[in-house]
């Protein structure tokens, strides 16, 4: 397994210790600009643009030649399909399939892009060795530890020999938190573990691709509420996250609405004050030819 490629560390006096940034590729600002009107972007779309801006690309696996020539690609947990749609437009010779448990797909899409409702826990409705590239992002916290293992095995099954699987996940835990943002994070982690999940899966993505060739793992750090536009986008994403988790956390932690309101307001204010950041981990590997 290789580590540190293609990302690398960059020391800077204005960044916290252990904060990792990309410095191995150069792109113009307009190549991967974050949309200005974030109020019109769903939380998943915010995450998509944040990932893309952070990595300066839509993927890390060495699959560009295959995409240019024409391959079959699966986007797992595609949501409204921002990644699928962008990739389909960028690589018109390839075919893209986006799957999600809910029908939240776009009303129109490129001719080389289709969407399908799929419950991952019931297995993928595709034959063995179907796809040249399988991409999964932001999915582990929807499953228990055992279920996540089953999901990754399904991704492995439908990938062609010589094809790549790439996993991208956030976490496990944020760095440089204040008391209220820590309380929110600890509650979320407790809830994930209570349903059989593992908050440390992002750090172990490479383990799930054991047996793959060209196995590569790395991460980049993403700021919350500071360091310009990307930090503000992540903060807006956290605002939506606090709202989305309100009911479940209040019920599980037995917090009142007023208590949660204080945690929400104070927690969000702490991210920029403490220069909070989170690591985005990825792993990719090639399914062996034999």
TrEMBL record:
<dbReference type="InterPro" id="IPR023576">
    <property type="entry name" value="UbiE/COQ5_MeTrFase_CS"/>
</dbReference>
<keyword id="KW-0489">Methyltransferase</keyword>
<keyword id="KW-0949">S-adenosyl-L-methionine</keyword>
<protein>
    <submittedName>
        <fullName>S-adenosyl-L-methionine-dependent methyltransferase</fullName>
    </submittedName>
</protein>
<dbReference type="InterPro" id="IPR041698">
    <property type="entry name" value="Methyltransf_25"/>
</dbReference>
<dbReference type="InterPro" id="IPR029063">
    <property type="entry name" value="SAM-dependent_MTases_sf"/>
</dbReference>
<keyword id="KW-0808">Transferase</keyword>
<dbReference type="Pfam" id="PF13649">
    <property type="entry name" value="Methyltransf_25"/>
</dbReference>
<feature type="domain" description="Methyltransferase">
    <location>
        <begin position="73"/>
        <end position="163"/>
    </location>
</feature>
<dbReference type="GO" id="GO:0032259">
    <property type="term" value="P:methylation"/>
</dbReference>
<dbReference type="GO" id="GO:0008168">
    <property type="term" value="F:methyltransferase activity"/>
</dbReference>
